[in-house]
Give the backbone structure.
Amino acid sequence: MSLEAWFTVGTIALVIAALVTNRISTDVAMIGGLTLLMLGDFFLPGDVVAVPDAISGFAHPALLLIGALFVVAAGLQGTGGMEMIAQRLLGRPKSIIGAQLRLMLPVTVMSAFMNNTPIVAMYLPIVNDWAKKLRISPSKLYLPLSFASIMGGKLTYLGTSSNIVVMGLYIAYLAGHADDPTTLGVGELSAMKKFWGVALVGAPSVVVGTALIVLTSRWLLPERRPATQTTLDARKYQVEMLVRPDSPIVGKTIEQAGLRHLPGLFLTSIEREGHELPAVGPDERLQADDRLSFAGILESVVDLRKIRGLEPATDQVKKVDVRMPQRTLVEAVVARNSPLVGRTVRGARFRTVYNAAIIAVHRAGQRVRAKIGDIILQRGDTLLLETHHQWVDAYRNSDHFYLVSKVEGSRPIRHERAWLSLAILAMLVIMFTLTPVNQVISAFLCAMLMVGTRCVTGTVARQSINWQVLLVIAAALGMGRALEQTGAAQHIADSMMAACTSLDLGPRGVLFVMFIITAMFSQLITNNGAAVLMFPIVVATGLDLGVSIEPFVFTMMVAAGASFISPVAYQTNLMVYGPGGYKFMDFVKIGTPLTLLTGVVCTLIAPVVFPFTPTS
């Protein structure tokens, strides 16, 4: 290899080593590696990767698509549309294995017919909330989510872009040898085989791969982020919520309404028609205007406010002079010299003076059971307020409060726009699958509709974009270009394939080795890059063996998308890497056996459905 190729390989090895140590964040390591490659292009005599090529990933369609889909997901989350999806698709399984299956199966099917990146982007916040309710570590679900989306891409021609690339190369190759098709050992490529051919090899690998993930996740998939727990010193609030007459939970039991499964939150009593019910069991049916008293931690109080049809029981909330999209929850601690000390909330005219309504009060671990307006405030009381999002800046330095802080994720859910956000999502799916409109255009249009219809505000839309994920993907694309342009990838592939052929492994043995080599390259460069790089090598190898190239081509389609071993190998892996709290080796531990098993399945199945027909 050239000096430039060695420099590229060394730089990528350095980045991988940095990621393995977990001492450098993913985005810093990847941007650092890309910077080194651009410096190498400047100082070395040959070409490594020119600046335009290195930074082209920042304008890559996949990057723009993911950014727009973060906004679409924010609109679904802000209207409660995601919660409606979760309730229908995910349910309430009793075990981690059950949860993984309920998650992976629909994701796999959907990924067969549409791009898997938007699917993962939509599911991330759903899975986060679902994991909290099930009290499961989200790291037990995020990686199966990504892997299911990748495996689903091996079920149809449209499943992933690398399938389309390989099929395009194959069709072009067949057309170029139309005068003597018998030398290829293949028959006519029908429309059915073109669309479903990869499924003959991919479907068995999906079944076996799914089984491997759910059966070994107990040992191979760590709990990087613990399931939500209530700690002994957690700050607890007593909060009252009112069941609105138009609420969908009217007539449902407490269990059916999902009020018994919020972690760290307990339904302490129900007040109905001025009388407190003597006992509250899971089978108690809710009625309109029921006054529900809860005791629990702040995070679960925030989740409680997201349930459609529940609203704070205090009338002062409705009188706060703030538009609904601009509201948020704030915590404020009453200062020692505050004029609020020793006065009731009603007597201090709190809502009028501060333009904020007190939702609940925390006092040194005690439950303040009085009505909000009758509570006599004391110094050190922590007040949970509903007010406008700029309240923190206005009272940060006030001597009325020791400390004020905004509660993250506490903006009110706009349930009345849930069906509108779901309609925009349906429009996105239809545009992706049934129209020739470019996916980036489709995603941008739907993101703008989310903002334009006020399903999400412009401020929240900007905040919802995970810039770390976008930086990592852009850098990974630039590094892949360097591998291709320096010839490092081609040299490695040629050397490994030549060595395997010289060992006289036979068609099945070479087929397995070809799968592994293609899969390895998909970890280092894009799946499309791996497909383009390996196609001529695979065809030449099949012809040298004197057998049909068809099993090699369809096996390579599966191998090019087997991006399981590295978190930087594919966009969906990068999307779950940070939120799941994973380490680099977590992907290696479960991705390596998954890749090897997939290779074994393809090696056994491909020659059966696409026989090694001898060429003439």
About this structure: The CA atoms of residues 302 and 409 lie 8 Å apart.
